[in-house]
Every structure is written in C-alpha cells, then in structure tokens.
Amino acid sequence: MSDVLVVAEHRRGELRDVSYELLTAGRELADSTGGNLHATIISGDVDEYGEDLNREGVDAVHTVDHGEEFNHGVCTQAVEQIANEIDAQYVLAGNTVNGMDFYPAVAERLDMPLVTDAIAFETGDGLSVIRELYSGKTEGTIDVDSETAFVSVRPGEWPAAEGTGDAAVEAFDADIDEEALNTTVNGYEEVGSGDVDISEADVLVSIGRGIEEEDNLPLVHDLADALGATVSASRPIVDNGWLGQERQVGQSGKKVTPDIYIAIGISGAVQHVAGMKGADTIITINNDPSAPIYDIADYGIVGDLFDVVPALTEEFGG
Ligand SMILES: Cc1cc2nc3c(=O)[nH]c(=O)nc-3n(C[C@H](O)[C@H](O)[C@H](O)COP(=O)(O)OP(=O)(O)OC[C@H]3O[C@@H](n4cnc5c(N)ncnc54)[C@H](O)[C@@H]3O)c2cc1C
Description:
This protein is of the alpha/beta class. It has two domains: 3-180, Rossmann fold; 198-317, TPP-binding domain (Rossmann fold). Helices cover 30% and strands 26% of the residues. The protein is built from nine helices and 17 strands. It has helices at 17-33, 46-53, 72-86, 97-110, 217-227, 235-239, 270-276, 293-296, 305-317; strands at 3-7, 10-11, 14-15, 37-42, 60-64, 88-94, 114-118, 120-124, 126-133, 138-143, 149-153, 168-171, 203-207, 230-233, 260-264, 281-286, 299-302. Helix 2 (46-53) links the parallel strand 4 (37-42) and strand 5. Helix 3 (72-86) crosses helix 4 (97-110) and helix 5 (217-227) runs parallel beside helix 9 (305-317). The N and C termini lie far apart (60 Å). The mean pLDDT is 94. Flavin-adenine dinucleotide is lined by residues 208-210, 234-236, 248-253, 265-267, 269, 271-272, 275, 285-288, 291, 304-306.
C-alpha cells in the first residue's frame, strides 16, 4: 500500500483548475510513499477529461462513465471502489462544494481519517497536513496518526500539473448500485446572475462599503470592463443585495486566488482577508491609510475611490 488517488472534478463541461493542482499535490505524496499516482474522473465527457488529466507525473487515469453531472451517490461508490482496487494509501479531493459533498462519506467507508482544507504537506515519517485555523489567523500542523488518510486540498495552493504524461487512461468498470443512489441529477442550473465564478478569475475588482450606495456600482463595473476583470465584493455589498452571493469573497463567501486583486473601499477585516490573501498581487484603494488592508497590500492608493476609480478606468479603457 503506497499509491495515491486523486479525485478530479469538472463543471459545465470543463475540468476545474483544482483538478490539475490535485495532481501536483498527489505527486508530492506519491514521491514520499514511493507509490504511483492515480487520478480518477467521474461522469461527463470522461474520455476528454481523462486525456487532459494525463499530465507529467501521473501514472494512471481511471475514468468512470456514468451520467453527466456530479452525483453524490455515484461519486461516493466509484471513489470507494477505485481506492480499494488500487489499495490507495492516500486519497485526495478538492476542498470544494462537490468535494465536501462526497469526501466525508468516502473517508468513512474506507475507514480513513479525514483532514480537510490542506494548504501544504510535511512528509517523512508519515504525513502531516498544514491547514489554517481561526479564519486564517494562524496555521496548524495535523499529524496523521494512521498509515492511510483522505485529505481535501484547498484550491489555489499547489501549482497546476503541466505537460503530458504517459499514464494509461482506462475506463474503470464501477459497480454502481442504482438503488442506493437516492438522488437523480436532472441538470445544472447556475444560481444568481449567470456564470460568474470568481474563484477562477485572473483579475478581480472587489468593492466594499466605501462605495456607499448601489447607484455608484457602475463606477466599479466600468473599471472591471476596462481591465477585463471580474467584479467581486465584501460581505456588506452582498448583504445589501447589491451583488449576488456568488461574488462574495471571504470566510463565508468564496476563497479566491487571482493574479491581481484590487480591493476598493474595503477595510480588510479578517473575515474578508481569509478569502483573498492567496492573491498573487493585492492592490488597494482606500482613503484611510491606517485601514488593515494596507498590511497585506502589495500596492496601495490612499485616496478617494470616487476620484481614483474613474481615473484608472480612463487610463486603462482609453
Ligand atoms: C461570521 C462572520 C463571517 C463574515 N464573513 C465575511 C466574508 O465572507 N466576507 C467579508 O467581506 N466580510 C465578512 N464578514 C464581515 C466582516 O467582519 C466585515 O464587516 C466586512 O468585511 C467589512 O466590509 P468592508 O471592508 O466592505 O466595509 P468596512 O469595514 O466598512 O470598510 C469600508 C472601507 O472603505 C473605506 N472607504 C470609505 N469611503 C471611501 C472612499 N470614498 N474612498 C476610498 N475608501 C473609502 C474606509 O476607509 C473603509 O476602510 C463576516 C463577519 C462575520 C462575523
């Protein structure tokens, strides 16, 4: 027993970025155990996904062709069967909405301890998982007191696996007990204003309470358009109903890891920072130089957003 299994995920016809990141995290663990790295993809266009998962460092890809969309029961049964088939020592999945849906059940069925939301590993004598505690105020090291483990991995923490591997991409003949599925997935419907996924955006223009009122929001949309960016927000904006929940960044919103995060009129409360501190470059526009957001910003413009934002829009849009 030394192999590692990664459970990739897809949505709306595409593999999600976390799938490639899981391959890198899985390779790291497989190197520590001396085992092989397996990936699995369940449902949807598994032939295409399977080929895409055949990246450097991957030894085998198991595809399970069953339905189009993620289904808890199908995923749970298939992952359990594949993990048993390859005698996996570690199983990794994304710490995502879909991941959270199935991994507790699979960990329980496999009798593996479950460690969630990993941001790094320490390997050597066994496995230790680094994860954040108290909304990111501190980090903790969880020593896994077991030979096996199921670990969920936070999106955006490992680089994506690249290149092309020489893995065998094979269909896995999962024995899905239809009677035990309990749910049928009829289709996929995006909540809120369409297909915005701020967790996948490269550039985010994020707006906070400094915008004062809903009628001022076009200022921010104009800047986002000029930059080719996506608009996100702090919680008060969402609580006011000015933008949809799918755009909220933070502890009770989404965790984002864009290349550039522009925080406008956002103070930098710990619950907000918990969702965006993984951004590569943080830029803030805030008229209060003592606002906590300046503690984590790479660049800042101390000024009135109602002057600065239109000037930037003109600069980049013109
Ligand atoms: C359990 C819990 C979970 C939470 N989850 C989240 C979460 O997921 N996401 C989140 O964002 N918050 C969350 N919060 C709320 C969080 O604590 C803060 O209240 C919130 O982040 C503050 O939002 P803000 O920065 O937009 O507003 P404020 O803190 O009011 O900051 C507004 C900023 O705008 C600046 N400003 C004002 N006018 C201008 C101007 N004209 N030009 C430039 N700058 C200006 C001010 O200097 C200030 O720094 C949570 C709270 C709790 C208790």
